[in-house]
Design brief:
By secondary structure, the chain is α/β, with parallel strands linked by helices. It contains twelve helices and eight strands. Helices cover 43% and strands 10% of the residues.
Length: 304
């Protein structure tokens, strides 16, 4: 079955200077590095990319700059999640006007536990507000962050209301049983699993690809896993798990800061340590643990 999106689309880490301003040259270089490694595209302004810390104006200008650098619109997933539905619509219309039809959208997360009908109404308003037959929405399920779920009933109703526009589901629940159930329930949707350890199993069940954070560090490894999910080697499975351990070496490390510390170690560029508030860099003990564990791998994860 051909899905609206397939392959590997890293949830792009975003570099900032010490004052929290985006470093655009480093951003463009990182995008090009991942595409040159063989990734099918990149995902802008997701959770790993601290996307909700960007203003609407920033998100528009960064997207325009990425496209101006030579990246094709069909190589980009744009996250349009926003507290105000009008802002999500504005971001979606802007992306559509630039040819970026694949758009990632969280459920409304600014009230606790909205009813399914409210989630459906919010997403429908965004889809209708963008108003394009070309739009391909990926529903972004990340309950540990948003505290709001896309239930099976919600997904089914959104597919019924918008069969052309609702094209996929990004599952960041970290629950393999949930991912497999969604794949089984909605075989026509592109179910993209965010948990790197589950990618091969999900693909064997019918998932067409993944949006994940680890591919910022090890794109070749993830591409290799995804190209041959039926026969992933034990060595590659172990490498994925070893790299994921970098995120939880010590209790309560913010995963974005841990990823950035590992990338700083990989590239020798400590600009990657910078994050935007309310995130904070790892403390010295945490950062040293991540750096030492990365070095203990004995090889450059970017070329694994």
């Amino acid at each position: 079955m051909t899905h609206a999106i397939e392959g590997l689309w890293p949830a792009l880490l975003m570099p900032f200077d010490a004052s929290g301003q985006l470093d655009l040259p480093r951003t463009l270089a990182h995008v090009r590095r991942l595409l040159d490694a063989g990734c099918d595209g990149v995902t802008l302004f997701g959770t790993t990319g601290e996307g909700l810390s960007f203003s609407v104006a920033e998100r528009k200008s960064v997207l325009e700059a990425v496209l101006a650098s030579g990246v094709r619109p069909d190589q980009i997933v744009v996250t349009i999640s926003a507290c105000a539905l009008a802002e999500a619509i504005e971001l979606g219309r802007h992306a559509i006007a630039l040819g970026c039809t694949r758009q990632l959208l969280m459920p409304p997360f600014f009230f606790n536990h909205p009813r399914d009908a409210g989630v459906v109404a919010a997403v429908s308003q965004v889809i209708q507000g963008i108003g394009s037959d070309d739009l391909r929405v990926l529903l972004y399920h990340f309950p540990s962050l948003s505290n709001v779920t896309f239930t099976h009933a919600t997904v089914a109703e959104l597919v019924r209301l918008h069969p052309q526009q609702v094209a996929g589901f990004k599952d960041s629940a970290g629950d393999l049983a949930h991912s497999l159930a969604i794949i089984k329930a909605f075989p026509k949707l592109a179910i993209l699993v965010g948990s790197e350890a589950h990618v091969a199993t999900a693909m064997r069940a019918g998932s067409p690809g993944s949006i994940n954070g680890l591919s910022n560090l090890a794109p070749h490894l993830l591409i290799r896993v995804m190209r041959n999910p039926e026969a992933v080697t034990a060595a590659d499975e172990a490498l994925v798990l070893d790299l994921l351990k970098l995120l939880s070496l010590l209790p309560n490390m913010p995963f974005v800061s841990a990823y950035k510390t590992a990338l700083a170690e990989q590239t020798g560029d400590d600009t990657w340590l910078n994050v935007r508030a309310p995130l904070t860099p790892l403390d010295n003990t945490e950062a040293q643990a991540v750096r030492l564990a990365y070095r203990a791998l004995g090889q450059n994860a970017a070329t694994l």
